[in-house]
What does this fold into?
Amino acid sequence: MKQLSVAHLLGIKYLIKNDIDLIFETANHFKEVINRPIKKVPSLRDITIANLFFENSTRTKLSFELAEKRLSADVINFSASQSSVKKGETLIDTVNNILSMKVDIVVMRHASVGAGVFLSKHVDAKIINAGDGTHEHPTQALLDSYSIKEKLGTVKGKKIVIIGDILHSRVALSNIYALQLQGAKVKVCGPTTLIPRYITSLGVEVETNLKKALEWCDVANVLRVQHERMDIKYFPSTREYTQLFGINQQILDNLGKKIVIMHPGPINRGVEITSEVADSHDSIILNQVENGVAVRMAVIYLLAQQIKR
Amino acid sequence: MSRKILLNSKEIEIILHRLACQLIENHNDFSNSVLIGLQPRGSFLANRLADLLTTEYGIKQLQKGLLDITFYRDDFRRRDEPLEATNTDINFLIEGKNVVIIDDVLFSGRSVRAALTALQSYGRPENIELLVLIDRRFSRHLPIQPNYKGRQVDAINEEKVVVHWKETHKKDSVFIANK
It folds into this structure.
């Protein structure tokens, strides 16, 4: 049956392998669509989607909005900074108010872990999690895997290292689930203070030596240091972080093999990655952005298909 | 399920040759014409006709594309089974071209309606024609008629016209089956 096993996209944790295959297969078709002279299909003409961003976002919001518009859905946007959340309204009230304007799908980013799951139990709409706190960011993980598959042909059996601030990263957790579901081997690498204590219970290995991690891997997914989520000092200085965990061309040249470089953005150039590496041929950072639209179109299309008229 | 054979492989062969000749009558050397097969089933007919035109009738540089209309259909969310997309393979623009849409069976006309919308994404064609192997008269939901047809069939709605191609079923045949 060509249908997702879930009613919402709340996290990769809730998906099965077939879901990922179906999303990628559908995304292939949409990638062809967005490379046409007229990059639009009329499938979701009668669907309305609300993008609720309770946390700042530029690229994810743009990517979702573009995906929705390319499917011909009607789109409304909402940002917490300019909303009644500041006036003390609860999440359910906010969302129910929006839903009473006949909205079918809610794309939500929220600072609280599990906000999407909570919402899916209390409101009558399809929920797509666009990032919930430090928990999951499923569409980012899907587009990362899709990009790896596009570059290397398959994800199965590939060795992927996720480098940086694992502790505060929803991208890392969703990526670990997604990659393992597809049969990849995953390591995480970063300062011990930024690696969650029980991460090995997920079946990933920890490597604190950047050089060893890079020598092992086929793909390095480099994360941003999220200063805004850090309430205390996790490492002595940015300069020290760069010296120990920053990726530059010299390190890559000394590996004696080519590896694929990924980054979910926004990049802190010169901190976790140098400009030279970020703009090199081995980097698929901009492919990730392009694939993001196709993958999000696929997710929205497949969920919309389940909505009864 | 009872079956009544409408066309056997010999008859289909003759029809394909006739359709090819009719196309040449209107499109000469196809220098400004393209064939667009509707996925999935119209692509077999499109491939066959393209083969015939190039090998038997000496048409050089025939442009052929395959179009998937899934995302343009008007029954999204209106059916029990989910829609399944197939590939679109059109690596040229149809701006200013004479386009021939090719499908195996013309029934309600809704697929062709979707195809007309989908084609707009590839430019503004000079004109569009429709070629079908089987035209089921009296079953149309929309004002759409073929320019070229293999055989006209008056089947009742409870009956289904099935086309088998040798690529998938070893032998070409067209038959009517009771649902």
